[in-house]
Amino acid sequence: IPEGEQPEAKGGKITLNNADITVKGNKYALGLIAGDDFGNNSSSNANNSSSVVKILVNGDISVNTSTQKGSCASDGDMQRTIGALAHSGIIELNGNTNTFTVNGASDGNNYREIAGFYTSKGGSITSGSNSNVTINVSGMKIYGISSGYYDCVYKKKRGLSNVNLQGQTVINLGADYEGKSTNVGVAAYAQSNNYIKDLTINFMNLDEYCSNTGLNTQAEGKIVVDSLYIGTAKNSVQDPTKILAVSTDIKTFFGEEYQNSGVVNINQNGVGTVKVIGELKAVGKGTINIDLTNQASYLYGHTLLNNDDNDNSEINLAITDGAKWINVQDKND
Fold first, then answer.
1. Nearest to 128 by CA among 165, 91, 163, 98
2. Stretch 58-68: mean pLDDT, rounded?
3. Does residue 77 surpass a pLDDT of 80?
4. φ and ψ at 50, to 5 degrees?
5. pTM of the predicted model as reported, rounded to 2 decimal places
6. β-pair type (53-57, 12-16)
7. Most buried among 9, 18, 71, 86, using CB within 10 Å?
8. Residue 193 backbone class (left: φ over 0; alpha: ψ -120 to 50; beta: rest)
9. CB-CB neighbours of 2 under 10 Å
């Protein structure tokens, strides 16, 4: 009910065995939606199993969402462009191949989010161990995965918003986009908990006007990854000074101070392969734990701590069993 009180949420489930979905819009384009459209329709209660909204994908799925400026779009339009949105609901990906392609026309700011996966208000997106996920996102300010952003408002949902991806996940950012852009692989906010078993983040545009961040936490967000690659699919261009690979960022979020900026744990079980090109940066009392535990693993870049005003951030880097650290400094650090 636009601009009115929404009816009582009674739950529901959609099952997709195989699907090919295309959504094009001027103002916004959302592919899969579990829960509510950022509060604009009936919502489920993530704590009440009888009212939870679920989308079960039991076969292969391809989702394409795009927005473009047109006669119906104005600068004030939201122009949200998202492949899969779990805003209090649950999305389960159980098929072998899950591809989400997102092309957004907005600037990506001020409620104009452009993202492959988006969870908030206790929402969850999961994939099975045999489910491979590919996320392609292009636009001015984009996210492969964004988790927990609006939980700064939904305080009772903090710690519930999450992604849990058990298969292989590949995120490709910025392909065929020209101009200044901000590209983030995985962002975790406001105590959201996120696990990705095997993650590849490819930055397709290393232009000097682009900002590329692999893993980013703010306001006690948490990211756990077992096997990780961060770099570029263009093998001839591997410049670690153009990628902020892992970052714990800020602990004050929308005027509220959290205990820390977040935690990133990489290969803490010791069985993964880690290939990271770029900088590791911890501020805001954040912690990065990263273990390189085999000959195939490496860090090609450098580390940066900002301990001003008793910041007490930590980067714990362990290198064993033939792994390598090639220390490349950024002249601006």
1. 165
2. 95
3. no
4. -75, -15
5. 0.93
6. parallel
7. 86
8. beta
9. 6
d(CA 299, CA 329): 12
**pLDDT attached to residue 45:** 54
* Residues 237-283 pLDDT 10s: 578 888 999 999 999 998 899 999 999 999 999 999 999 999 999 99
- Check: CB of residue 278 under 8 Å from CB of residue 214: yes
Which are the contacts of 65, defined by CB distance < 8 A and separation ≥ 6? Answer: 22, 23, 24, 25, 29, 30, 31, 81, 82, 83, 100, 101, 102, 103
Rg (CA), the chain: 19
Q: Which helix (H) or strand (E) holds 197?
A: strand 193-203
Is 217's pLDDT higher than 70?
A: yes
Beta strands 287-292 and 141-147: pairing type?
Answer: unpaired
Residues 6+ apart with CB under 8 A from 110: none
Q: From residue 60, how far is each of 138, 163, 236, 301 by CA, in Å?
A: 22, 19, 33, 37
Q: pLDDT at position 193, please? A: 97
The DSSP annotation for 231-273 comes to E-S-TT---GGG-EEEEE--SEETTEE-S-SEEEEESTTS-S-
| The amino acid at 12 | G
> H/E element holding 200?
strand 193-203
- Helices and strands in the chain: count of H runs, count of E runs: 0, 28
